[in-house]
User: Which sequence fits this backbone?
């Protein structure tokens, strides 16, 4: 039996589907977060160079990964919305931006806290750090641009162009540690090489990354639902929904 | 101009704007961020002598000398080919050790000594428990011993 996936590209049916999925992703996020933090703080061994302080990696690296992934996903949906004029994709892009900005901020913040004891500085104008800061400004810029334009369809289009132009920054962040002599060390985990960390440490980090995924999906669905209600408030199905809620 | 041509012109314009933006960003990164030079590059006069710059490498074994009074410390930064003497007054980061990575910012004086005003520790991307690190070191020493025999 074929499922008609396009049914869910209509805001009304996506609204109810997303409503059912949010709790599932939230529960998964909490369970994975607890497991990941437990492994990170109690199971994973002490590092030979950095002692206990390296444990901030369990937040720093998943947050940094997520900040880049979310940007790509945001730009993808914004681009789809721009190309095919689909309302829902643009709404999803708008919904991703705050979570992306949050993870970027987390990556910068935990990186700064980690840099002080290990490198001896809170901040350097290093290629990795600077390009990640630019990513933060891109998220903020995307949100401000959309907030500054009253007509939501025009706001979607302007935001999409900004998001697509900003994609150029993602490979710069990722490869900065290879292209330049940076203070930031190279990647411990990559697609092409075996990871350069103990397996328990890696496990903790991957579980934390999975938890971040679940959290991001839940938040995006939740925020998309709010945006749908806002933008479709003039339609019949929203007022019907409103009445149903009121009489319940 | 037909609408189709107009659209094509827009896309071409957009793509070229994107390419220019990328080139500008990369160029700005290359010239504005403080990157480090290796001791070999400094020896080959590739580093700016009249400006502040950074050198990066390993702290040479048995090169750290602390002055009896105060926080001044002398050490050498090496990339195993060349070595640059460095003097620094201030607090060193925890990971600063002989044989470990370091990035120092400062100027080179007339007598060839690098006067640093900031010393940062650079660590690698390897994370492992101390036992594993010890085992690796022992294996390396055993290999060295068997090579010299």
Assistant:
């Amino acid at each position: 039996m074929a499922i008609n996936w396009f049914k869910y590209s209509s805001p009304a049916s996506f609204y109810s589907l997303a409503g059912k999925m949010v709790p599932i992703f939230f529960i998964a996020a909490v369970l994975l977060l607890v497991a990941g933090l437990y492994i990170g703080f109690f199971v994973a061994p002490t590092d030979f160079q950095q002692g206990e302080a390296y444990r901030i990696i369990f937040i720093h690296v998943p947050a940094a990964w997520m900040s880049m992934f979310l940007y790509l996903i945001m730009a993808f949906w914004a681009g789809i919305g721009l190309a095919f004029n689909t309302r829902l994709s643009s709404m999803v892009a708008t919904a991703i931006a705050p979570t992306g900005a949050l993870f970027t901020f987390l990556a910068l913040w935990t990186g700064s806290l980690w840099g002080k004891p290990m490198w001896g500085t809170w901040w350097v104008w290093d290629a990795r750090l600077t390009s990640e800061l630019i990513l933060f400004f891109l998220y903020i810029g995307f949100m401000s641009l959309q907030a500054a334009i009253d007509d939501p369809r025009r706001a979607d289009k302007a935001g999409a162009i900004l998001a697509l132009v900003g994609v150029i920054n993602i490979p710069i962040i990722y490869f900065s540690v290879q292209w330049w002599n940076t203070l930031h060390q190279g990647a411990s985990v990559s697609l092409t090489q075996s990871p350069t960390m103990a397996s328990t440490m890696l496990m903790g980090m991957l579980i934390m990354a999975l938890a971040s995924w679940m959290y991001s999906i839940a938040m995006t669905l939740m925020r998309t639902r709010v945006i749908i209600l806002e933008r479709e408030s003039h339609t019949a199905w929203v007022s019907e929904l409103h009445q149903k809620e009121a009489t319940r | 101009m037909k609408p189709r041509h107009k659209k094509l012109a827009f896309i071409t314009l957009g793509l070229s704007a994107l390419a220019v933006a990328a080139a500008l960003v990369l160029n700005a990164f290359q010239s504005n961020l403080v990157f480090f030079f290796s001791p070999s590059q400094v020896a080959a006069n590739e580093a700016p002598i009249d400006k502040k710059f950074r050198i990066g490498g390993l702290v040479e074994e048995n090169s750290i000398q602390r002055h009896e009074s105060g926080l001044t410390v002398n050490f050498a930064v090496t990339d195993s080919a060349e070595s640059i003497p460095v003097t620094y007054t201030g607090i060193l980061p925890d990971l600063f050790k002989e044989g470990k990575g370091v990035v120092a910012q400062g100027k080179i004086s007339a007598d060839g000594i690098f006067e640093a005003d900031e010393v940062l520790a650079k660590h690698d991307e390897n994370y492992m428990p101390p036992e594993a690190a010890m085992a690796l070191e022992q294996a390396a020493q055993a290999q060295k011993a068997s090579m010299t025999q």
Summary: Residues 1-33 of chain B form one domain. Chain B is about 35% helix and 30% strand. Chain B touches chain A through 42 residues (CB under 8 Å). Chain B has a mean pLDDT of 83.
